[in-house]
Design a protein that fits this description.
Helix 5 (140-153) links the parallel strand 6 and strand 7 (160-163). The chain has six helices and nine strands, in the order βαββαααβββαβαββ. The protein has one domain (12-200): 3-Layer(aba) Sandwich (Aminopeptidase), CATH 3.40.630.30. The protein has a nine-stranded mixed beta sheet, sandwiched between helices. Residues 1-5 have low confidence and may be disordered. The protein is α+β, with helices and mostly antiparallel strands. The radius of gyration is 16 Å and the shape is globular.
Length: 208
């Protein structure tokens, strides 16, 4: 899997999401499968992407763990808040120009998870949801998830990426482990009991 050209600026911790919110172009790209397939990341475009994500969060596999079984207006309000806050941002992943994942990024010291361990200013986390499967591609979720993690690690201000999947979500726990996330402890968040994982540059595993 080969990286497409991407110029990464030097940013301070508090500048990362401010920088991303100003970008409408493709933020990051990866090719795989003999360079015939492309994963790209860009910022969420609510007007264009919301109907698709609304469909995803109401799928049976997402209702239990994503906990976004709400109306379209409520979902829009949620993502508006993510896009407006200085310590969060939302991006989407596409596969050959088709939307396949949505990822919420957050600055861990200002998130609920940051109250559960000694968070540093260089800790960032992500929440990840995949589209319903339309084409069977081996390790596809791992490829998309790892592209998002690799994108974050491309910024010098990101030293560690935090994962906190629901402790009962077997697939999500397996996904982060395949990417090199290491279990730390079980934590209690307002909406779930979660397994806390850390991943740094040395433990991160690329699936390609």
């Amino acid at each position: 899997m080969n990286k497409q050209p991407f110029i990464i600026p030097e940013l301070q911790e508090e500048e990362l999401f401010h920088y991303l919110k100003k970008r409408t172009e493709t933020l990051f790209g990866r090719t795989f499968d003999s360079s015939l397939s492309v994963i790209e990341l860009r910022s969420l475009d609510l007007q264009k992407d919301l109907p698709t994500i609304y469909n995803w969060v109401h799928q049976p596999y997402a209702k239990k763990f994503w906990q976004m079984n709400i109306g379209l207006a409520e979902l829009e309000a949620f993502y508006l808040s993510v896009l407006k806050r200085a310590d969060t941002h939302s991006i989407v992943a596409s596969y050959n120009n088709q939307l396949v994942a949505q990822i919420d990024l957050y600055h861990a010291p200002f998130d609920e998870v940051g109250k559960c361990y000694p968070a540093t200013m260089n800790d960032y986390g992500l929440h990840f949801i995949m589209a319903p499967v339309s084409e069977r591609i081996p390790s596809f979720s791992t490829i998309v998830f790892s592209a998002a993690v690799e994108f974050l690690f491309g910024f010098s201000c990101v030293h560690r990426v935090v994962g906190e999947p629901d402790s009962c979500n077997v697939k999500a726990n397996e996904l982060v482990q395949r990417a090199g996330f290491r279990f730390q402890q079980q934590i209690v968040l307002p909406d779930k009991v979660a397994n806390l994982y850390f991943c740094d540059h040395s433990s991160f595993i690329l699936p390609y």
